[in-house]
Automatic annotation (TrEMBL):
InterPro entries tied to this protein: Metalloenz_LuxS/M16, Pept_M16_N, Peptidase_M16_C, Peptidase_M16C_assoc, PreP_C
Domain of life per record: Eukaryota
Domain Peptidase M16C associated: 555-822
Pfam families: M16C_assoc, Peptidase_M16, Peptidase_M16_C, PreP_C
Protein name: Peptidase M16C associated domain-containing protein
Amino acid sequence: MLRTASCSASLTSASPFFRHFPLSYSSLSSSTGALRAPGRNLRRVASPASTGRRVFLRRGLRVPSTAGRGVNRQLSRLSVRAVATQPAPSYPDVGQDEAEKLGFEKVSEEFISECKSKATLFKHKKTGCEVMSVSNEDENKVFGIVLRTPPKDSTGIPHILEHSVLCGSRKYPLKEPFVELLKGSLHTFLNAFTYPDRTCYPVASTNTKDFYNLVDVYLDAVFFPKCVDDVHTFQQEGWHYELNDPSEDISYKGVVFNEMKGVYSQPDNILGRIAQQASFGGGDPKDIPNLTFEEFKDFHRKYYHPSNARIWFYGDDDPLQRLRILSEYLDMFEASPSRDTSKIEPQRLFSEPIRIVEKYPAGRDGDLKKKNMVCINWLLSEKPLDLETQLALGFLDHLMLGTPASPLRKILLESGLGEALVSSGMSDELLQPQFSVGMKGVSEDNVQKVEELIMSTLKKLAEEGFESDAVEASMNTIEFSLRENNTGSFPRGLSLMLQSIAKWIYDMDPFEPLKYTEPLKALKARIAEEGSKAVFSPLIEQFILHNSHRVTIEMQPDPEKASQEEAEEKSILEKVKAGMTEEDLAELARATEELRLKQETPDPPEALRCVPSLNLSDIPKEPTYVPTEVGDINGVKVLRHDLFTNDIVYAEVVFDMGSLKHELLPLVPLFCQSLLEMGTKDLSFVQLNQLIGRKTGGISVYPLTSSVRGKDEPCSKIIVRGKSMAGRADDLFNLVLYTGWHLDSFLFFILLQMNCLLQEIQFTDQQRFKQFVSQSIARMENRLRGSGHGVAAARMDAMLNIAGWMSEQMGGLSYLEFLRTLEKKVDEDWEGISSSLEEIRRSLLAKNGCIVNMTADGKSLSNIEKSLEKFLDLLPESPSGGLVTWDGRLPLRNEAIVIPTQVNYVGKAGNIYSTGYELDGSAYVISKHISNTWLWDRVRVSGGAYGGFCDFDSHSGVFSFLSYRDPNLLKTLDIYDGTGDFLRGLDVDQETLTKAIIGTIGDVDSYQLPDAKGYSSLMRHLLGVTDEERLRKREEILTTSLKDFKDFAEAIDVVRDNGVAVAVASAEDIDAANNARSNFFEVKKAL
Ligand SMILES: [Zn+2]
């Protein structure tokens, strides 16, 4: 769900709002040797899988641990831990007496074998607050407090409150304790999010002391925030009028206000919002300014009360200690009726379908006729569904839409009626489950045809059922994902919490969603006995075809809408100004100044000292080492990582792009997609796709480029990743029969499949290829609107280094331009394209330059030799064509990329190695400090942008500044330019320094699941980062001094003096900037 929900779904029930960017440090990033999140260093160009929500403030970094394709969010919703067969281990217990003494009663207790956990439900007697206390061996401990917060309108109260309560509290009376925790804790997760009917505050850490620190700050924030007494926080996070000088125009400012403006710049989000048809807690920028401080305070008083709270604890800490911590807070409250007043009432189902037509802001260029969107939505039931039905619907969803071979997805995409699917699938996190399916990039005349095709396909599926291979493939994919329970860097305990809460929040059983084994067994048995048609056809009929609660939404592009909205906002503000007296205006300017001063005044040291922090002595002196054995098979380097993986084998085969012709580079992402989604001589792509689904846990193929420190040549590779269950001998045997391979290990089929993809795929399907191109265009356009900072960063990197240029050719604005030309070329010269794809294969595929990386337990690893030998034997010795030299770069210049938007993305970057700066571990501490203080305070807090941060790529030396959903442009660039002076004037005491160091170590040591450990080790190998160097960098981090900050100031000035600026922004703002600073930007139109 969260981890895999696509960005485009950010307004639908499945994905709540993420605050800030603590997610930015992924499991991959912090251990690639860069020590600190080199989000951009490892550029994995987008694969066809859905975009992780987590990437939203970093560039293009993809989660490495989700090699599997097409397991969509409903399935991951079910990704609980592996099924346990062993008896329940014993965990520390809380006796009834002990609980009573602390004011709790034990309501129920169960051992949940699916997650090898003992779970106890407590009730706080005085307030009725419910607590789920889950004990197991997971060191990645999770705490979460969830409140039911039904919004009554679209003024965004729940969302603004979510932001505001983290801005200081009774025990922690500083501006933003949240930011202090971001800076100086070892958290593995720290965030807050707003759903349409609830607000969640989760934290996680592997360090017990750190964990309880985080818990205490969050509890105090939720129950005793300062924001209810302080209108300034409300103004800062929600909205306020800004007037710097009475002679200027008044404008709106506010973090949530701008965040939501950004959200509403994306048509997919508008669609999701309408589909929800309910008052919306996120907030509509048009309505946010109607919210008053009184309503805001009232909402907190009403709903942020223990009686309306559900609390979750998970992990290997002492369950009694959890109750002690809680009782201290909960005992301060009396019972309140909020639990009843916050009840979520189900919506009655419509007796007739309805249709909604809306406009969305579009650019003036491009073919507007082909930019319609249409989506059909069903509310599936009036009452919540039982787990088996829900599970069956999840299956059905995967069968219809989960992979490129799934019939509903395939038929829609092959119809040529639209560019890509939009907002499609089941979502079951709210009281009433929904299903939706639709397309974007549709021409006006085709809107109705899309609707008809959806309906007729659903009807056909109900009548004819699904192929048995498809059912088996879905079954295996789902079981694999349940068993693997790979939540990436997202804590497992949090994933479980969100599953549990999805029922618990509606007063249903919190244990039930965690126990999938029995319903899964029952479902499988029914499919075996009655056949899949008997199971799935009635579901399609009952919930979709015969369901009159059908809402069809059509969205039409409107090139006037963005400027219209801007004009409307302007006229409202003009009226506001006209209604003010001179005194009023002077007062507003004074209030603006007061707020700004308050925002820019640092917290006094004694306030900062309140936030609990670890000491340097709590920090391990050594980095975490991943067991790595480097061997050789037939001249190919093989890395083996002996780690417990719960019987799963993870394999990466890496090929070198060193012989690839330059002009073929932009075709590489489509080459990768073709490998996975075109057929071979013997197998259609559907059959191949099902085979992979039935026999493996998924295969993915993607390019990866990075600079290598101290070297001119970049690292440029194609990575083929796959995973498989360790033992499936019977299936294996069947495969062997028709391929003639001999069976000597489980690894065999993953290698077999990889070999098949690499060598046997035929690049002959012109129509499918054409779809890939139009889908890629749609995806890139979405990226420009939703992750413009990533596009800007890629652009700057492409000017500053070769690896950046390569990456931009395969995933940046250059790529989008290439795709648009290619789209025409597919019809004119398919032969040429097809032979180019062949040429890419020949220049990549070779033993020479190949590296294999394996992660599994020792026994499995020792079996690989023969299979691997066989696999490698089938590869050609050397690539065709000689070695090429990569030397491309974009010309250095300041660039503004025009898109229809209400908020901008502003970047500036330069290479600090060009000043002679030598990498020192302190650089990570310093850049984190710049992000968390200077940029946070100026770009976000007083600038009103949703995010502002910097990134240091230790491989290339590029230091970049970026903002996200930013109402400003030149002003933000000025802030970036002031960074050197900020560092020079900086005076940090030892405590602040310690905090910054600990926070940096938290990133370096971020929690990793075994596959991520093996993958990180591979990355370090590719980028030449040794364990000795990691140890040295760690020592440098731990001994960072104030002098390092001052020295760094000199290096960072290069960004101000010689850096390049790239903004993705609205035409109006770019014009204004070019007028103010005589044609500072070269203007480039993109949408
Ligand atoms: Zn937010």
